[in-house]
């Protein structure tokens, strides 16, 4: 088993890629904290993992709330005594708005979840990792964190910020036995479109230039395989990278 005796937190794990990552991590021997603000969904994922012989607990966290994040890490340490892997996966879309149309409210909401929540979780995790002497962070970013024609201004900027945060963190703690990498999925079959509101016709049309070159839509399980590699010791020499899993989309 590739994650035997590891303890992992996966945020946004009630659905889509987070769910697939939580399930695969558990199958590979990790004790998993299945975290989501959809608590019923998180409980269902944790229960299914346990029914298959894995170890998991469900946790209710809105990653946009500092206090929720504090209790997430406290609950993890309380249940499993340590933390080896943090997977920052929870995220929401914008409405494809270009900067001329984005409202402060939408910008702030997208950044609170996609960027500030990730930074705060990394801040808490890093301090745990420094104390323990080891730890791994895997950020589920996006092709939109590397390219400009994949979403609206807020989502694109929020994910580019996490690309920078990933590289900076990797560099800062490179000599502290802490690794930090990112995944840039292409389009993946999940429920994320449910988070889109007030879609901009202009912006959605413009980003089709980028989206039109997508070779195919991926499955959450295909992204989970990369999250497994990056979370495991097999990637011990990989640090500060944002790796695309997109059937070649970024190559275009
Ligand atoms: N689906 C895609 O095509 C795609 C492509 C690239 C990157 N991504 C990124 O992948 C990640 C996972 O998304 P997905 O596509 O699996 O979507 P999804 O909507 O299926 O799953 C996201 C999960 O995050 C949870 N969530 C949302 N806001 C939250 C919050 N504030 N606090 C806690 N949990 C919250 C949701 O309840 C949901 O369970 C996101 O960061 C997304 O930006 C998605």
Account of the protein in words:
Pfam families: adh_short_C2 (PF13561). Belongs to the short-chain dehydrogenases/reductases (SDR) family. InterPro entries: NAD(P)-bd_dom_sf, Sc_DH/Rdtase_CS, SDR_fam. One of its GO terms (molecular function) is oxidoreductase activity. This is 3-ketoacyl-ACP reductase. 44% of the residues lie in helices and 15% in strands. It has a single domain (7-245), classed as Rossmann fold. With 252 residues, it is an alpha/beta fold. The chain has helices at 16-27, 39-51, 66-80, 104-132, 153-172, 201-211, 220-231, and strands spanning 7-10, 31-36, 55-60, 85-88, 135-140, 178-185, 242-245. Helix 4 (104-132) packs parallel to helix 5. A 7-stranded parallel β-sheet has the order 3-2-1-4-5-6-7, with helices on both faces. The model has no long low-confidence stretch (mean pLDDT 97). It contains 7 helices and 7 strands; from the N terminus they run E-H-E-H-E-H-E-H-E-H-E-H-H-E. Nicotinamide-adenine-dinucleotide binds at residues 11-12, 14-18, 36-38, 41, 61-64, 89-92, 113, 140, 142, 185, 187-188, 190-192, 195.
How do you describe this structure in short?
Belongs to the short-chain dehydrogenases/reductases (SDR) family. The protein has helices spanning 16-27, 39-51, 66-80, 104-132, 153-172, 201-211, 220-231, and strands spanning 7-10, 31-36, 55-60, 85-88, 135-140, 178-185, 242-245.
């Amino acid at each position: 088993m590739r994650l035997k005796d590891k303890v992992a937190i996966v945020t946004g794990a009630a659905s889509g890629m987070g769910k697939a990552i939580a399930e695969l991590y558990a199958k590979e021997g990790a004790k998993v904290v299945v975290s989501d603000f959809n608590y019923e969904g998180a409980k269902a994922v944790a229960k299914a993992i346990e029914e298959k012989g894995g170890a998991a607990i469900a946790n209710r966290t809105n990653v946009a709330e500092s206090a929720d994040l504090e209790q997430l890490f406290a609950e993890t340490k309380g249940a499993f005594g340590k933390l080896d892997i943090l997977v920052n996966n929870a995220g929401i879309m914008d409405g494809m708005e270009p900067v001329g149309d984005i409202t402060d409210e939408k910008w702030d909401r997208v950044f609170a979840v996609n960027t500030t929540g990730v930074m705060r979780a990394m801040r808490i995790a890093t301090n745990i990792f420094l104390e323990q002497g080891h730890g791994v962070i895997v950020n589920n970013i996006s092709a939109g964190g590397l390219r400009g024609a994949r979403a609206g201004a807020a989502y694109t900027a929020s994910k580019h910020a996490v690309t920078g945060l990933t590289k900076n963190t990797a560099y800062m703690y490179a000599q502290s036995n802490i690794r930090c990498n990112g995944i840039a999925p292409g389009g993946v079959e999940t429920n994320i479109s449910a988070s889109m509101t007030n879609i901009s016709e202009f912006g959605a049309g413009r980003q089709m230039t980028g989206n039109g070159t997508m070779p195919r839509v991926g499955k959450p399980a295909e992204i989970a395989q990369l999250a497994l590699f990056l979370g495991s010791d097999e990637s011990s020499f990989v640090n500060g990278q944002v790796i695309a899993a997109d059937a070649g989309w970024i190559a275009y």
